[in-house]
Design a protein that fits this description.
mainly alpha; 0% strand
């Protein structure tokens, strides 16, 4: 399998996806903004369509348009403070409307199915350069803003009082989310992209550990989901995005089941001791 160049390219991109998506997703989940990640992943389809229409890289188009939508969400938050769902509806209407209009016009000059479902065959050398550049910029930015982003994730109002430039960092974070989405589109596809951002984090949160350990475990779960999904989808001849999403749900269910069984086992072990103590 690894003798094929397209599989090597897919493995290269999958490695960066499995690190970048949970690193961004943990801040989205802690801020209860998972649906914003889902909205932005669907917004990327409009960027892909614009890129194809203009004869440019669809990944760059997805990155630029998703960054614009992320900034638009942040801007609208000041006007619809109590209606986050309304903001997402507005952004979805703009992005999906743009995508459908361009695709239905027949001027995109390409089939967008591979972007919807993900495909290992469509990763080109220029995509590898784009993925590598966006991933490195994102990792360096997260490293530099790590403390401020944790502060904002736990208490945005307290962060403002402490002098953190919340609004600026929120705009930068929107660009980071756009970068994670653009990096993942080729392998995962638009439709299930948000699962790669949120589900490994949801699985790691079941362990009940601190922030750093949860982030580290999120990356491990993400690597398991994405890389195992890539290899198995090759042999099953199915789209890697959909199969990776199924694996991520399965891993989450397994961790929850093990957690429940472990808690039940501890309760069973405590009861005999209590009875023995009373006796």
């Amino acid at each position: 399998m690894l003798q094929y160049a397209f599989m090597k390219n897919a493995l290269f991109v999958s490695f960066f996806i499995s690190i970048l998506c949970p690193s961004i997703g943990i801040f989205l989940v802690l801020r209860r903004y998972s649906m914003i990640g889902d909205t932005l992943s669907h917004s990327s389809l409009a960027g892909i369509a614009l890129g194809l229409l203009l004869g440019r890289s669809p990944l760059i188009g997805a990155f630029l348009f998703t960054s614009f939508c992320g900034a638009l969400i942040e801007f609208l938050r000041r006007y619809f403070k109590k209606h986050t769902d309304l903001i997402l509806t507005i952004v979805l209407a703009l992005s999906v409307g743009t995508a459908i209009t361009i695709i239905s016009s027949g001027k995109a000059h390409a089939n967008v199915d591979s972007f919807l479902f993900g495909s290992v065959l469509t990763v080109t050398k220029s995509d590898l350069v784009t993925v590598f550049a966006l991933s490195m910029i994102s990792v360096v930015t997260i490293f530099l803003l790590y403390d401020q982003m944790i502060y904002i994730a736990y208490d945005e109002e307290a962060a403002k009082v402490a002098g953190v430039r919340v609004q600026l960092i929120n705009y930068i974070f929107s660009i980071l989310v756009a970068a994670a989405i653009a990096v993942s589109i080729r392998i995962v596809g638009v439709l299930v992209l948000s699962s790669m951002i949120a589900l490994p984090v949801a699985t790691a949160l079941q362990l009940g550990k601190g922030f750093r350990t949860t982030l580290f475990c999120s990356i491990l779960f993400s690597m398991t989901d994405v890389l195992l999904g890539l290899f198995l989808s090759y042999y099953l001849n199915v789209a890697p995005g959909g199969f990776s999403a199924l694996l991520s749900v399965a891993v989450l269910m397994i961790v929850i089941l093990v957690k429940k069984l472990s808690a039940a086992g501890k309760q069973t072990a405590v009861r005999p001791r209590t009875r023995t103590g009373r006796g």
